[in-house]
Design goal:
- The chain is an alpha/beta fold.
- The chain has a single domain, classed as Glutaredoxin (3-Layer(aba) Sandwich).
- It is built from 5 helices and 6 strands.
- The chain has a 6-stranded mixed beta sheet with strand order 1-2-4-3-5-6.
- The N terminus is likely disordered.
Length: 137
Amino acid sequence: MIKVNKRITTFLFVLLAWGVFSQKSDSLTKPKNLTLRQFSRLADNSKKPVLLCFCADTFRVCKIQEEALEQIALERHQDMDVIWINLPDNPKIARYFEITSVPVLILYVKGYPVWLLYQVYEKEKIIKYVDPYIVNQ
């Protein structure tokens, strides 16, 4: 049996995380090739609310939504995590959630989904929906 140094384990974990979260646009996390287990960790292990956007960056409506989410991620990064799930980059997640239209926004609080929105929303409207959950943290 091979003994694994704690530093090596940490280093490997960091490399794995860096591969999963390889694309970051300011504070908007854009993971690629997520497994269901990794996805579950994103939503379940965060101490802050997690706003997920399921989208496809090839659609114009998703580009509009992305702009609003980038602004929210920059302004509210200390209060919440904002994660962009690009469906072509994450086909397993798309199949699991049976996403058939985009964009889809889901807010997770303490590992549980608390609301779901199915269309493009402006930044102010998203913040209006999110704020009650941030205040109660």
